[in-house]
């Protein structure tokens, strides 16, 4: 039987429900576990973590919206991830981790052999956390790194922190999707990110929705996609003070580039090769899947 999914949102979970979840994890019958926004006791959270540690089938773990609410829970999750080898996607969006929480998780996240997608949006992170996250974006293929990173709504990160991230993104050998929406970035940081995007050989999606940008930033991105080769396919600029005309120009140029790449791929006969395709569909619904391209 193929592993299935357990998805529960915003409920108070009983001990019996937790037992069923843990039994399924230990039986390797769960590929996706989502308990986003759920209430469970500290004891039951520890039981779930032990189940995660023992599971060989679990690929996606969603603990969004405050499930990891204390440093003790963060430590338990770190211990679980140190033992686990199968989790590819981890969602912690809306967890009050702070930099101390990232320090606690860093060893487990950095050393995990399968983790490729990480959501740390709205986790009250600062510059120290970003410094640690940059270590998960290795500049060469010597070790595995993140392919998708979400850092939405972490306003405590300073200009220096975002600059450090931009440098890491520019040199990352694997990152394909970066979500920075709803951070107060402004045009200066956006300019740094434009340089990072133009240097990156892998970044395909950049989400800058609601980040305080103006036409100045949009013009920099327009010049970039118009005059320099880039892997970028999607640039989200909604909810910024940017004219619809500029947004449309950028979108059109990115679309043209994607069409040309598709034609080149067909000409080279790539239709028979297997590639890893990244698919995103909103908060807590992101996954990497092997597909025949």
From TrEMBL:
Record field: compositional bias (Acidic residues): 255-264
Amino acid composition bias (Polar residues), ranges on this chain: 269-278
Keyword Repeat: yes
Pfam families assigned to the protein according to its UniProt record, in alphabetical order: LRR_6
Family annotation (SUPFAM superfamilies): RNI-like
Keywords assigned by UniProt, alphabetized: Repeat
Entry-linked InterPro entries: Leu-rich_rpt, LRR-containing_regulator, LRR_dom_sf
Annotated spans, Disordered: 254-293
Protein name per Swiss-Prot or TrEMBL: Leucine-rich repeat-containing protein 73-like
Gene that encodes it: LOC107728077
């Amino acid at each position: 039987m193929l592993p299935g999914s357990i998805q529960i949102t915003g409920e108070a979970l009983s001990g019996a429900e937790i037992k069923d979840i843990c039994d399924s994890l230990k039986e390797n019958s769960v590929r996706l576990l989502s308990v986003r926004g759920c209430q469970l006791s500290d004891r039951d959270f520890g039981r779930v973590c032990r189940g995660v540690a023992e599971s060989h089938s679990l690929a996606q773990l969603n603990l969004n919206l405050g499930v990891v609410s204390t440093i003790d829970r963060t430590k338990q999750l770190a211990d679980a991830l140190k033992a686990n080898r199968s989790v590819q996607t981890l969602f912690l969006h809306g967890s009050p981790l702070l930099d101390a929480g990232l320090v606690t998780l860093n060893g487990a996240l950095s050393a995990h052999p399968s983790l490729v997608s990480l959501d740390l949006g709205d986790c009250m992170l600062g510059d120290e956390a970003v410094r640690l996250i940059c270590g998960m974006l290795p500049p060469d293929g010597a070790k595995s790194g993140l392919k998708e990173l979400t850092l939405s709504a972490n306003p405590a990160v300073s200009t220096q922190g975002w600059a450090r991230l931009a440098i890491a993104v520019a040199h990352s050998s694997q990152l394909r999707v970066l979500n920075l929406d709803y951070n107060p970035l402004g045009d200066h940081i956006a300019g740094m990110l434009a340089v990072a995007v133009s240097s990156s050989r892998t970044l395909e999606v950049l989400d800058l929705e609601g980040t305080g940008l103006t036409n100045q930033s949009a013009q920099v991105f327009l010049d970039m996609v118009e005059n320099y080769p880039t892997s970028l396919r999607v640039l989200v600029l909604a909810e910024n003070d940017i004219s619809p005309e500029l947004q449309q120009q950028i979108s059109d140029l990115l679309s043209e580039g994607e069409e040309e790449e598709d034609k080149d791929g067909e000409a080279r006969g790539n239709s028979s090769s297997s590639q890893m395709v990244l698919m995103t569909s909103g908060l807590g619904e992101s996954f990497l899947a092997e597909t025949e391209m």
